[in-house]
């Protein structure tokens, strides 16, 4: 098959997939999960039901694929926030701030019903592992630089940060998110040596 043809087919598949994921997200926001059907998703995406079934076996698969896309976008945001030219502690601060903002905004856009359904998936476990490793590496590097405490393992501090900043989903303002990040960073502070 010619290269141009293959690229065109791949682009079409990606467009159909994205349209289905976007349609599903809009329908869930408008109507909730209970009545979501493949027919509704296909109609909103502007594709036939048979075409949609070529990509996804059911509405749950569309929802899971959309959630995986969202999580990957959030992980990309965190990576972008931690600019490699900056010292580790600066990158860590930016990553923690970004993570807290994601938690804050996600809590406002997704109900508890949707969160409970989506966070039982295997892709969430993989993403959480990737997130912990990312934070752990930043913390370990900042500790080696002498900017953070080194009396607690980086793995434990990464868990501390992520659990503490998950609370950003429950606060009522951006200012509260910033305060929560500041308190979390204070817990990571370098030990004073005698």
Give the rounded overall mean pLDDT: 86
Looking at the structure, what is the overall shape?
elongated
- CATH topology name of the largest domain: Tetracycline Repressor, domain 2
CATH homologous superfamily placement of the largest domain:
Tetracycline Repressor, domain 2
CATH architecture title of the largest domain = Orthogonal Bundle
Could you give a short account of the major beta sheet?
none
Total domain count: 2
- Count of helices? 9
Uncertain segments are none
C-alpha Rg, in Å? 20 Å
What is the highest CATH level, the class of the largest domain?
A: Mainly Alpha
How far do the termini sit from each other?
71 Å
- Proportion of residues in extended strands: under 5%
The helix content is: over 70%
- The computed structural class is mainly alpha
Please provide the ordered H/E string of secondary-structure elements.
Answer: HHHHHHHHH
Number of strands: 0
């Amino acid at each position: 098959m010619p290269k141009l043809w293959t690229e065109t087919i791949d682009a079409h598949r990606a467009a159909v997939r994205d349209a289905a994921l976007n349609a599903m997200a809009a329908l869930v926001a408008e109507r909730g999960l209970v009545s979501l059907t493949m027919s509704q998703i296909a109609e909103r995406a502007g594709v036939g039901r048979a075409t949609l079934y070529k990509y996804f076996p059911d509405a749950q698969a569309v929802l899971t694929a959309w959630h995986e896309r969202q999580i990957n976008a959030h992980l990309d945001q965190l990576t972008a926030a931690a600019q490699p030219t900056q010292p580790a502690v600066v990158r860590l601060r930016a990553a923690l701030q970004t993570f807290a903002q994601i938690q804050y905004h996600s809590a406002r856009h997704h109900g508890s019903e949707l969160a409970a359904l989506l966070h039982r998936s295997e892709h969430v476990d993989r993403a959480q592992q990737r997130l912990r490793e990312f934070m752990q590496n930043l913390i370990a590097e900042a500790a080696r630089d002498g900017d953070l405490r080194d009396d607690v393992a980086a793995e434990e501090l990464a868990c501390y940060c992520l659990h503490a900043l998950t609370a950003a989903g429950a606060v009522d303002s951006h200012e509260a998110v910033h305060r929560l990040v500041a308190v979390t960073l204070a817990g990571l502070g370098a030990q004073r040596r005698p």
